[in-house]
Amino acid sequence: MRLKLSGVKTMSQGTNECKPDELWMNITKERPYQLIDVREPFEYKNMRIKGSESIPLSLIHEKSKMIEKHIPAYLICQSGNRAHKAAEQLSQLGVEKTNVLKGGLQAWIAAGYPVEHELTNAWSLERQVRFTAGLLILIGIVLAYTVSANWICLSAFVALGMIVSAITNTCGMAIMLAKMPWNKVTEKSSEARCATTNCH
Fold first, then answer.
1. DSSP letter at 33?
2. What is the DSSP letter of 144?
3. Virtual CA dihedral for 79, 121, 39, 36, nearest 10 degrees?
4. Would you name the residues annotated as active-site residues?
5. Strand 53-54 relative to strand 14-18, pairing
6. CATH number of this structure's domain 14-118, picked from the four choices 3.30.465.10, 3.30.70.20, 3.40.250.10, 3.30.70.260
7. Residues 10, 31: contact at Cβ < 8 Å?
């Protein structure tokens, strides 16, 4: 099944970054484009740009046949990092024109453009990572003072993981959290009522 195509301006070969204003202008024009959200399905269900298609970064290779190789592809994630990784993979798979939304969905919302969202209180994956990392560091410190000094190693391990994550631009904790039961999209959640927020 192919992605639904809509209008947008064609950009140069390779991977480009586009600001929210540029993407908004592009999606209002009568030229073909593909709007692809590479976040995890539960994040997409929670909030998304109208008309975007969900193809998670973790499934880019598996679902690459859904993407037209000769049509400009605009990639969206929460902040832009995963979209850049997806763009690299798609370029290797033969997609000619990939465009990353600079700043991701956060920048899109900050610019005042509309999103669709589920009526849910689900946290984004990045927010879950920050919470989990902070909680583990705090637990390590508390246990080091109350139980054994060796527990400080837990805090040190998490801190080291965050440094490695920043250097390599990958996040093992995010991969693990994405597989947790509360982050799975069920048939019931897919039938949840949606609302559209027009902010612009």
1. B
2. H
3. -90
4. 77
5. unpaired
6. 3.40.250.10
7. yes
For residues 25-54, one letter each, b for 16 or more C-beta atoms within 10 angstroms of the residue's C-beta and e for the rest, the string is ebbeeeeebbbbbbbbbbbbbbbbbeebbb
pLDDT single digits (tens) 109-160: 999 998 887 755 667 777 888 888 899 999 999 999 999 999 999 999 999 9
> What Å distances lie between residue 132 and 48, 94, 111, 118, 136, CA to CA?
24, 37, 29, 24, 6
If you search the block for the tokens 């919302």, which residue do you land on? 109
Domain chopping of the chain, boundaries: 14-118, 125-197
Q: For residue 185, what pLDDT is reported?
A: 61
Assessment of whether the complete model's pTM goes beyond 0.85: no
Q: For residue 98, what is the enclosing H or E element?
A: strand 97-101
The whole-angstrom separation of Cα 71 and Cα 99 is 11
Instruction: In whole angstroms, give the CA distance from residue 121 to residue 46.
Output: 8
The residue whose two tokens read 């837990």 is 154
Phi-psi region of 50 (alpha: psi -120 to 50; beta: other; left: phi over 0): beta
Tokens of 186: 């069920």
Q: Which tokens go with 164?
A: 């490695």
Assign 182 to helix, strand or coil.
helix
- Convert 67-82 to b/e letters by CB count within 10 Å (16 or more is b): bbeebbbbbbbbbbbb
